[in-house]
Amino acid sequence: MIPASKMIKMRALDANGLNHMAEQLRDGLCPMVSMVHEKETFTLLVNRFCWNHEDKYQDKPLHYRSHVGLLFRHVQKVQRKGFEQHSPDRILNLLHIHVKEESKMTWVHLVFSKGHEIRLSVQKLEVYLSDLHDPWPTRSKPMHLHEHMEEMVA
Q1: CB 3.0-4.6 Å disulfide test: which of 45, 54, 91, 93 passes with 34?
Q2: HSE on the CB side for 126, CA within 13 Å?
């Protein structure tokens, strides 16, 4: 069980704050069916890997995952790249979130694996993230290309 101090609840009002959120959400799994844009908000559910906590069980690493809610406010437009919105059973792997300023508009880019992306046009940056319940244990840990390469060489 993860101690309450390791559960996350965050607010971002600038790019730096959003970068801290992005670190916690790296390798999160996002079901398309959980993504909703209405009344200037964009919400989604993320099955996040808990990078901030690891235990041992029978001398083997034990990791955790948790469902978190992610809420963007002041959203004017949502654009999708590389996939159709009409695939509600699809699950996307979140790689990174970053912000790009263009004239009077701020764009938030949610970058997923396989070249998929969601781009949010926001009047101002205001984002909330919170664990929704207790995390559950998992033995698997996301692995990245450089880790695969190191494993092949070893």
Answers
A1: 45
A2: 8
Q: What are the E-state strand segments in the chain?
A: 9-12, 28-31, 36-38, 41-49, 55-57, 60-73, 75-81, 91-102, 105-112, 117-122, 127-131, 136-138
Is 73 part of any domain? yes
| Euclidean distance between CA atoms 91 and 29, whole angstroms | 6
CB 74 within 8 A of CB 40: yes
For residue 31, give its domain range: 7-153
- Type of residue numbered 109: H
| The pair of three-digit structure tokens given for residue 75, joined into one six-digit string | 């959203």
Q: What is the DSSP letter of 90?
A: -
Average pLDDT rounded to a whole number, residues 108-127: 94
Q: How far apart are CA 9 and CA 11, in angstroms?
A: 7
Number of domains in the chain: 1
